[in-house]
Amino acid sequence: MSEVIATYQLKGKSGSFGKKAEGIALGLTVGSWTDLPLLEQEQLRKYKGRVVSVEDWEDDDGSRAEVKIGYPGHNYSNDIPAILTTVFGKLSLDGEVKLLDLDFSEDLKKSYPGPRYGIEGIRELTGVYERPLLMSIFKGVIGRDLTFLENQLRAQALGGVNVVKDDEILFDNSLTPFYERVRLGKKVLDGVFEETGKRTLYAVNLTGKTSQLRDKARKASEFGADALLFNVFSYGLDVLQELREDPEISLPIMAHPAFAGAAAASPQYGVSYSLWLGKLLRMAGADFSLFPSPYGSVALEKSNVLSISRELTKDDAHLKKTLPVPSAGIHPALVPLLVKDFGTDCVINAGGGIHGHPDGAIGGGRAFVQAIDAVLNGTSLREAAKTHEELEKALSLWGGEVKV
């Protein structure tokens, strides 16, 4: 049976949730039921939403319930906008209700592409295996020219960074035009590869009017772009899927979480982080998913963060795995905690933690590489710092190793 089962958390009065669930199932499908003649009920039965389960409990703030409702697949076109409108469109305006999850029947799920490259594909592009990837961010680039970007990019790559991304607020502009950034990135990183034998990828920020994004991404691919950064929640998950499915683009896509909090931040309203930054991003085609770490400068509650990571990386017969990228306020002393919580199939992403190093971005990158090596070798950061100057300086600046 083609179906999407939506899981909600509701607030209400004890004993009322069964009736509330039935009202949702009807209101978001056929509209009414008991008042219909029997003939019409039979004609519409296959379109009617069904209540799968209702589980309620009491907490300090009153009565709540987790409700599962199935929506027949022939009620909507099999695309994310239609499904979100069906299961949570007007319901999102109806008091304290949160959409926790969506379970797609296999026939519907197979229509979604998932990541083009996934974790293994990105590892092949970078040549980095069996360890976390290291990523850094262009910083302080607003109002700066291409020479500034060139110097930053080269320093980050020489420091051992595997992926460099644009800042999400770096849009197309006269000082650092989009296509010139692509050309510059290719020139700089090809040069570093010749020097070091190590490949660094550069994710350029794809921005502009929605109608122009496809052609812009195609040209970026022609000009030798490595990857695309995309502010998916400003544009929409369906736009991400179209970019992923275009055979003339064929680039890894890095999904930035900007604006995601508007839909997911409240514990009582909106959409769960695991669905928003996890399952749906993976289904739509993101190779990387950025999200706030549980211990950085813009921290999310740890259970939310780990649930995002699980959705991105759990085994799935149809979808490749998406790289989790815990971000914000990351510095070398946090590497042991990052590896403990996210394993080796993740990206350690730092901005200030690399650029703020006393030896600049080269020293910052090296300090992270040294920290990662130490953790994988079972050595404490303090012990490793005795023979690695860059790591020692980083620990002196940002603090010692965080206990795991």
TrEMBL record:
Catalytically driven reaction(s): 5-methylsulfanyl-2,3-dioxopentyl phosphate = 2-hydroxy-5-methylsulfanyl-3-oxopent-1-enyl phosphate
Residues that bind substrate: K139, K165, D166, D167, E168, H256, G329, G351, G352
Keywords of this entry: Amino-acid biosynthesis, Isomerase, Magnesium, Metal-binding, Methionine biosynthesis
Annotated Mg(2+) binding sites: K165, D167, E168
Cofactor binding remark: Binds 1 Mg(2+) ion per subunit.
Molecular-function annotations in GO: 2,3-diketo-5-methylthiopentyl-1-phosphate enolase activity; magnesium ion binding; ribulose-bisphosphate carboxylase activity
Keyword Magnesium attached: yes
SUPFAM superfamilies, per database record: RuBisCo, C-terminal domain, RuBisCO, large subunit, small (N-terminal) domain
Keyword Isomerase among record annotations: yes
Catalytic site positions: K90
Family per similarity comment: Belongs to the RuBisCO large chain family. Type IV subfamily.
Annotated protein name in UniProt: 2,3-diketo-5-methylthiopentyl-1-phosphate enolase
Gene: mtnW
